[in-house]
Amino acid sequence: MENQDNNAANVVRQQTGQVIPFPLTYPITLKDGTKLEVLQLRRPVGREMRNIEVTGRKPYDLTLQIIEATCGLTRAEADSIDGGDVTAAMEFVLPFLESGTGAKR
Asked: Alpha-carbon distance 67 to 83, whole Å?
């Protein structure tokens, strides 16, 4: 049941495409007091991309912005993710933005 609670705490309202469960080595506490142990990473959709500044961003900034947008976290919550977890998440998150990884032709 705890895993379901963690998934619910991840406030992903609409999941599109493949969702990648990403366990946090160092769980965070959300502003509502819920402990978040697993991020549900997924490709961002167009409306989320509008709020993500891609050009000239550092990989860490971009990773955190994608996590915020797709996992429903506030900036403060995303900023509280351990640096090691952010670095590990980059491996999954940054390829979401690579050209040619989206629509099938």
From this structure: 13
Tokens of 20: 């990648």
Residue 104 domain flag: no
Pairwise CA distance, residues 103 & 82, whole Å: 32
Nearest-angstrom CA–CA distance, 29 and 27: 7
The answer to the question of residue 23 being in a domain is: yes
Count the domains in the chain: 1
Weakest mean pLDDT among 12-21, 31-40, 49-58: 12-21
- One-letter amino acid at 95 equals P
Q: List CB contacts of 3: < 8 A, sequence separation 6 or more.
A: 38
Up-side HSE of residue 94: CA atoms within 13 Å toward CB?
13
* pTM, full prediction: 0.74
